[in-house]
User: Fold this.
Amino acid sequence: MTDNIFLKIINKEIPAEIIYEDDIAIAFNDISPEAPTHILVIPKKDIKKLSDTSEDDQDLLGHLLLVVKKITSKFEIKDFRVVINNGSEAGQTVFHLHLHILAGRNFGWPPG
Ligand code: AMP
Assistant:
């Protein structure tokens, strides 16, 4: 068992609305959506944040973006935003690397 909520989802210890899974990554609906579509894409590897990655993670990081592409293509989502919060001051609350896919409304820039 682990205290990390996303590792629990990976290990199927707690439920999630999983919409994509392969050997490297898993994607599921955000429990508290900030947009009509709000999906999280996470690696199965235990990585706490983007700044913890290294050259060894090059394929994995590319894979995560291709998963974003697969999901948005599958659901015919044309316009979307991809966000990674790195560290608590940047808004990270769950310390397992994750990409937010947000879509279905207009987004302001710069983000708040
Ligand atoms: P961040 O603030 O970038 O760390 O994003 C963490 C995200 O995880 C937030 O949008 C939360 O709503 C979401 N979240 C937390 N717990 C769960 C859960 N059990 N299932 C799905 N999403 C979750």
About this structure: The chain is about 20% helix and 20% strand. The mean pLDDT is 97.
